[in-house]
Amino acid sequence: MIEVENVTKTYDGETYAVNDVSFHVPEGDTVVLLGPSGCGKTTLLRMVNRLVSITGGMISVNNQDIQTQDKIQLRRNIGYVIQSNALFPNMTIEENIVVVPDMLGWSKTEKHKRYRELMELTSLDPDYYQKRYPHELSGGQQQRIGIARALAANPPVMLMDEPFGALDPILRTHIQDEFLRIQSEIKKTILFVSHDIDEAIKMGDKVAIFKEGQLMQYDTPSEILTHPNSSFVADFVGQDRALKSLSLHTVEDLVVMLSLLPENSKGKVSKDISMRSNLRDALSILLNQEADQLNVVNEQNQSIGILTISLIEQYLHGVVKGKDTLEGVKA
Ligand SMILES: Nc1ncnc2c1ncn2[C@@H]1O[C@H](COP(=O)(O)OP(=O)(O)O)[C@@H](O)[C@H]1O
Ligand SMILES: [Mg+2]
């Protein structure tokens, strides 16, 4: 786990790039540092692995003050992924991935075994890529190799600075999903920098929103969306925060709060949806007029009732006590 206590950083002795920031990342959680460009996210991240020195306060990783740890030792225990992971151009993909195990003196067999595990974890064919060079790979593939490389020596902590920021939106969504799947298996403690609220609510167990070096709110994605604590956070999260919050709720959550309609109305087109689906997907099917209503089915595929736009709207009003309505969404 990572503790950040009253941490400050000034580069010029006058202005604070990071200003008295405190928060705590529990073991196995992902915390997203979110905020506009220049608000101090990268500075804070790079203080954790001591690429940037701390002006004041304390950071500890796995219950040990980082200042008391040898820098090289510290960095071996912390995977670091940046936007454009500079893979070594003259090394093969396998050599790139095992750079740290190599420095740690692992045997050839151990390194190759680890290479294969990581390629499988990231859904890349180990045989196909083994002898290839970075320039033969697409940007998305290189980024996956960069993540595999950061995981190579199995560090308990990962720092990720806008790791998917250079990818196009479709690829980014795909890699985010893939990374969530990987993280559910490996359960690293992760600090993840983003300037994108959608990415933050998707990737974070908690989100830390910064403004000019100060931590404005540190909360779960759902709390940030439904109860922003300041106009800065509300504006940053955006006018469509109600809609965004729907992606954090399932049809089942709605069923707990409201009753579904009992049966199909005549002449309406209906489509099955699982209780496990999120409400944003449910809404988008209805708004795209793929169906007039949704037939909600449980795990045994039995129908448990009908979901309509107006039920989603009622739910939204219950969850988000704000001015947002679905009118803005439909427009
Ligand atoms: N090496 C540096 N020297 C001087 N100022 C810096 C340096 N790195 C960052 N800054 C300043 O610190 C502030 C925070 O920057 P940064 O941490 O890169 O923000 P973010 O990652 O949120 O965009 C900015 O005002 C930036 O200009
Ligand atoms: Mg940055």
TrEMBL record:
EC number of this enzyme: 7.6.2.9
Domain ABC transporter: 2-237
Keyword Lyase: no
Protein name: Carnitine transport ATP-binding protein OpuCA
Catalytic activity: a quaternary ammonium(out) + ATP + H2O = a quaternary ammonium(in) + ADP + phosphate + H(+)
Organism per entry: Lentibacillus cibarius
Gene Ontology MF: a single term: ATP hydrolysis activity
Family: Belongs to the ABC transporter superfamily.
Record's keyword terms, sorted: ATP-binding, Nucleotide-binding, Transport
Cited Pfam families: ABC_tran (PF00005)
Alphabetized PROSITE patterns for the sequence: ABC_TRANSPORTER_1, ABC_TRANSPORTER_2
Keyword hit for ATP-binding: yes
Subunit note: The complex is composed of two ATP-binding proteins (OpuCA), two transmembrane proteins (OpuCB and OpuCD) and a solute-binding protein (OpuCC).
